[in-house]
Write a structure and sequence with these properties.
Elements (H helix, E strand, L loop, with lengths): L14 H35 L3 H29 L1 H4 L2 H15 L3 H27 L4 H32 L4 H7 L2 H10 L7 H6 L3 H12 L10 H4 L5 H32 L1 H7 L5 H24 L5 H21 L5 H14 L1 H6 L2 H5 L6 H29 L1 H23 L8 H5 L3
Membrane topology: Multi-pass membrane protein
Pfam families: Sugar_tr
Family: Belongs to the major facilitator superfamily. Sugar transporter (TC 2.A.1.1) family.
Length: 442
């Protein structure tokens, strides 16, 4: 048997990588759909169930709170049981919770079910993306991770489009059918993961080198072995405390803060889109088509970011994304009372420019931490970002009523500029680096 001298980081893309991309990317589509469909269903649900402002806020933020809690232990779960077993948790929870939401009239039960959905999303972020980066060659890793964010916003756009169709064709129970509609994506996600393999890198950390070797040869060919895995020779067993003491605390803070600043305005808008657009004097057809148009511009922004990630590099793209999207929010707050078209232009500009930061949310935590810490970084990053988003989302109705839409947009701009400062101070460049190189402290 002839052994290749090439690193698996430089191996060609093969059918296994394509299937893995589909299996992991489907979760981003589901995430965007399931977190956004609540914004569509909430108006009719509020009327049907006579929800108070408190329960509107709790239900709108329930999944985000679940993601926060799930992120706290998802890293441990992924490291303890492996990536392959854990990636089946989310599809099963999505299916069960979507069915149960259809039959309940209790705000508390809806809150708990969506809280459980959030737990599953957090677990999947940690397990699925770790599995993905530990298999996919570096040439394709950044753009494909960035592409998952496109799928997130595609799922969000689908939620608004199909949710609106469902509500207009299902009578008074439209909100129930809307909340149950993720079942279709959930079945696809479950089926796409049936032939998933365990991460060879994770197996090595568990002293299961023989299994790791078998998987490497199955995925890359018989001329590859553990010798072609860059981390193998230099890898050392480190505890989480050791990692933080060596300087990874700064990187964890960077990921948590920039991710939080990138998602707070986005989730606040998606959870209360009708209220936000109404406050900006966009109603009727303007609100309906405006929501879809803005969501599609988020998708366009992510597509552009995906194309630029290996051209501009991670650091430069993050800085420019925060700068121009923050200025767009500043303009939106300044001219909040302008015509519908002016409002849509600034809102659309924000959606377009924030795409760069959005696509880096899955890239940075998966590239700048070693194998042992990668799932923890993903878990804590998504946890911190979602608790910030949950707080921001919960406060949106209060902010709109107390200080108005203009000042609310100024606060959103301030959050975005905090992300800009953190990006300038701490964002590293990982373009074209192996996972071992990108995770190394310099």
């Amino acid at each position: 048997m002839r052994t290749s001298n090439a690193s698996i980081e430089d191996a060609p893309l093969n059918p296994f990588h394509q299937r893995l991309t589909l299996a992991v990317g489907g979760a981003s589509l589901m995430d965007g759909y399931i977190l956004s469909i609540i914004g569509v269903a909430l108006v009719q649900m509020t009327s049907q169930l006579q929800l108070s402002n408190f329960w509107q806020g709790m239900i709108a933020t329930s999944a985000l709170l679940g993601i926060f809690v799930g992120g706290l232990f998802s890293g441990w779960l992924t490291d303890r049981f492996g990536r392959r077993k854990v990636v089946f948790v989310a599809p099963c929870v999505f299916l069960i919770a979507s069915v149960l939401q259809f039959w309940t009239d209790s705000p508390m039960v809806i809150f708990l079910l969506r809280f459980g959905i959030g737990l599953a999303i957090a677990i999947d972020y940690s397990a699925a993306t770790s599995l993905f980066v530990e298999f996919v060659p570096k040439k394709y890793r950044g753009s494909r991770l960035a592409g998952f964010t496109i799928l997130w916003f595609t799922g969000a756009a689908m939620a608004y489009i199909f949710g609106d169709i469902i509500l207009h064709n299902s009578g008074e129970h439209g909100w129930r059918w809307a909340l149950a509609s993720p079942i279709i994506i959930g079945v696809f996600l479950l089926l796409s993961r049936l032939n998933t393999l365990e991460s060879a890198r994770w197996l090595i950390t568990k002293n299961r080198a023989t299994e790791a070797e078998t998987i490497i040869q199955h995925v890359y060919g018989t001329n590859y072995s553990l010798a072609n895995l860059p981390e193998t020779s230099a890898q050392q067993k480190l505890s989480l405390r050791d990692m933080l003491r060596m300087g990874y605390g700064k990187r964890l803070a960077f990921v948590s803060i920039f991710w939080t600043c990138a998602v707070i305005p986005v989730f606040a808008v998606y959870a209360f889109a009708p209220k936000v657009l109404a406050a900006l004097k966009l109603e009727g057809a303007w609100a309906a088509y405006g929501s879809v148009a803005i969501t599609l511009l988020f998708v366009v922004g992510c597509i552009v970011g995906t194309q630029l990630i290996d051209v501009l590099g991670r650091r430069k793209m993050l800085i420019h994304s925060f700068l121009w999207s923050g200025l767009a929010l500043l303009c939106l707050g300044t001219w909040a009372d302008s015509s519908e078209m002016v409002v849509l232009v600034f809102f659309g500009a924000y959606a377009l420019f924030i795409g760069g930061a959005q696509v880096l949310e899955l890239v940075y935590p998966n590239e700048i931490f070693p194998t042992e810490l990668r799932p923890y970084a993903m878990g804590w990053g998504v946890s911190a970002s979602r608790i910030g988003a949950a707080i921001g989302t919960f406060l949106v109705p209060v902010s709109l009523d107390s200080i108005g839409i203009g000042n609310t947009m100024f606060i959103a701009a301030a959050v975005t500029f905090i992300g800009l400062v953190v990006a300038i101070a701490w964002a590293p460049e990982t373009k074209a680096k192996d996972l071992a190189e990108a995770a190394a402290l310099h």
